[in-house]
Please model this.
Amino acid sequence: MSTGYTCGVEDGTITEFPEFAMRCAKAMGALVTMREEPMNAPIPVFEPSDSGKVNAERATRELNDLRATSDDILQGIIDREYDSRPVKDRQELADSDLKMARYDYMLSQVEVWNPPTDDHGGLKEFMTQQIKDSMDWIRPISRTHPDEEKQTVVEYREMRERRLKEEIRRCEKAYLEEVERVAGRNQWVTDLKQSLDIT
Model:
């Protein structure tokens, strides 16, 4: 019985090895994202996502805006944030408690699930880790600093600047990694095509 990859060989529509190899390549590494696309879908030249670059540019604009913002305006921001904190903290706590309950329930379901085969054991481990990692991110800061003093303008400006610089570095790094990853995918395709004498 043929598969989606071999049906063209079986019915005679694929008679050349390079065409068969390129079809099968869609199930591998650099092209795995194409495995659900039609078998005859052309293999594109991949382009990197520019989201890291765009986010770094946005954070840079925010940093420049922060540096240009007067102390009086920053004091107003600090006052509004500080005054709204009790309500915001209560909302965060309620939201966080609800999310934690949902995660606890789903984790209990994962823990009692018996994978049908040993090959499915990795799925159980993956689901458990995903839930635990997500739970770590929703623990609200408000539980640890309910009586924190209001920041000064200098403290606020330094904290915001530090966070924005970190965000810029993180986004720029993510963009460079994306460019490198896409170049690797394109090189993988190029190498395969050259080995098959496809231009």
